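Notebook entry, structure prediction.
Reason for the run: the old model in the group folder had no record of what sequence produced it. Starting over properly, with the input documented here first.
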Amino acid sequence: MSLRQLARWWPLGLAWVAAAQAAPVVVSALGTAGDPLAGAVVFLDSPQAAQLAKPLAAAEMAQEKKAFVPDVLVVTRGTSVTFPNRDTVRHHVYSFSPAKKFELKLYTGTPANPVVFDRSGVAVLGCNIHDHMVAWVVVVDTPYFATTPASGQVTLDVPPGKYTLRAWHARLPVGAEAISQPLEVGPSGVKTTVRLWPLQP
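New structure, fully documented this time:
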């Protein structure tokens, strides 16, 4: 194989090796009372994971029936998010959160310019016209993330190594950071639990 051919296939080879060495991390998210918790954002941080994280190709936070859809959106840092308004009334979307401050003033349809979420953290969104509308954009620096279903359990396939396991939920107190704990992943993977508390009603 020539050097040119080797250079062409080298990234694919690295990706194949990483996939072959991936180990399952099974995380069970629990609520304050120890019950399975749906809607928890679970992700694994490490310096190596941060290097692999790339902006998502597409992401949107729509407004439908005077509500944000989805109410929790998880994206990697640098992702551009569109905010289509599919209602017949105008919305004024904003966030004053340190993770991202922006305003999309009264509009219908889809704004021409998406919002780039270029800082990790949690951005709380609202609408100046409809006070009951609230949503969250969770920005992570890792490709290893998931949102728990009703079972409260997710599986992340990651290379063995040392990570920080983080979990966040919309019912945590406003401004609360993700719950975090160290996690070492061996070649055969690991099962663990994370309890999120205190949760608001």
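Summary: Residues 40 and 50 are 21 Å apart (CA to CA).
The old model has been moved to the deprecated folder.
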